Amino acid sequence: MVAGRRLRKVAAALALAATTTALAAVATSPTPAGAEPATWLDHVSGEDRYVTAALLSQKGWPGGAPAAVVVSGLHPADAFAAATLAGAVGGPVLLTPPDALGAVTAAELDRLGAPSVYVVGAPSDAVVGAIQGSGRTVVRLRAGDRYGTADLVVEQALALGADPSTVLVVGSTDAQSALAASALAAAFKLPILLTPPDGGGLADRVARLGAQRVWLIGAAASLPDGVVAPLPGVDRLTGADATTMSAAVADRAVGLGMTGPPLLVSASSYVDGLAAGPVAASRHAPVLLTDGIEMSPAVLDWRARHPDARAVTVVGGWLAIGPLARCQLEDGNPRSLRCAEEELSRQGYHMGVNGRSDTQDRFGLFAFQKVAALPVTGQLDEAGWQRMLQAPPLPAPRRPDLEPDHVEIDLAHQLVLLVRAGRTVNVWHTSTGKPSTPTIVGVFRFYEKRNYRQSDNMYRPSYFIRGYAIHGYPSVPLYPASHGCARVYDGDMDVIWDHIWIGEQVATYR
């Protein structure tokens, strides 16, 4: 019987872990009155960049396309330069390993029904042969380096009706800027020219196109004044970092009528967005970049300034743009209380997760602040927010010699630890025995659970030796105050009750 109960409780513990993992973020204030969440928050992510590109293609061209552009997934510069050509042919950019046509890409070409395919840059003869073998016409564009390849792409795009009057210039090593520029390039068929820091004949390349305007996309360090001074009609679209730069480019896009729902890509995982530009262009929308665990302020500010483009498609996996950032995006609030509750819940603390600062939040914050070595106030200030972003590890079990699944009561720090598979997964604030009635120290097992509130206000007590128990209580002070039991807040006891079982080990220690 004990073994059966234990298996059921292990399953319950796994369910708890799954629930907390699905949550996100921390804050000090609720969403401001009148603030609107995103109309919807779409998500496109595959197991790798090749699958993600195919999924983006399906978003942009659900009914097929007249042509497609195939580039190596290992050569981002070629992918971004190809955005102009993708706009000119009215199709997506797809990625393939350079040595052989990827199965995912081959399947997406079949779905698109594209009779023509432009192969740009590094893909091998084997890739070209495989596409030709499927009955498609292949145009190959490849030169000795990325600059020559980009120029060939521009020539081909011009032959198909691209507009050379405005040229987008991006530093050859500035992938984030090229990504932000790719939506503009595809939407208006504007050439993208990649340039090394020394210019590499940039002025002559621009002159050959007969361009009247040059938009410089990216940081000044990648496009120094000495290189761009000879260029006509120069306009810089830049920012303090990749996220603010992308917002500046997105502002220009909106000014040109690209008011559709933007695509959002992680600046640090930009390979997820190698194919994003043409898809954004297909929905008349810009590409925005964010970075870090939080949603970048530049993105939140941009959305506040462009309420008609509230809907957002996140491109990339959860590790690239995580649940905290997504929650902030949904709420439009960098310090959303709901996001705070979710993030702390995911880290292993029991919060209210209702967007209201309540008693449950206070006790969850007690536990977090103890673990994070912060002043224990039950309120989350900016220092607490920043500490939360670091996700301080939960305390390691002090009794690894016990069964892998057990409970620990840390009398010195006034914490209850739920240990599963040898690691701590949840922590609760507790108040244990006061000096005159101390909590017993040792290793025990739960032997009885009473699923009701007793006359002495002990809520759902779970006994581990004689009259000693973990139980809920309406008040749980920040100092040892009980008659020997481990008091926790009533709401915390509801969770503990569901995730412990009779026969489970309990260790108490100082």
Can you give a write-up of this model?
The protein is elongated, with a radius of gyration of 29 Å. It is an alpha/beta fold and 510 residues long. Helix 4 packs parallel to helix 7. The protein starts with a helix and ends with a strand. The protein has a five-stranded mixed beta sheet with strand order 15-14-13-21-16.
User: Quick one: overall form?
Assistant: elongated
Mean pLDDT, rounded to whole units?
A: 90
Low-confidence stretches: 1-39
Order of adjacent strands in the largest pleated sheet: 15-14-13-21-16
The structure class reads alpha/beta
Major β-sheet profile: 5 strands, mixed
The fraction of residues in strands falls at: 15-25%
Q: Report the strand count.
A: 21
- Give the helix tally: 18
Please estimate the helix content.
25-40%
Key words describing this protein structure:
four-stranded parallel beta sheet, single chain
Summed up, what is this model?
With 510 residues, this protein is α/β, with parallel strands linked by helices. It has helices spanning 2-21, 49-60, 76-81, 83-89, 103-112, 125-133, 146-159, 175-188, 202-209, 225-228, 242-255, 276-282, 297-305, 323-331, 337-347, 359-371, 382-389, 490-498, and strands at 41-44, 67-72, 93-96, 116-120, 137-141, 166-171, 192-195, 213-217, 234-237, 263-266, 287-290, 312-315, 406-410, 415-420, 423-429, 442-445, 448-449, 459-465, 468-473, 486-489, 505-509. The strands form five sheets. The protein has a five-stranded mixed sheet with strand order 15-14-13-21-16. A four-stranded parallel sheet has the order 1-12-10-11.
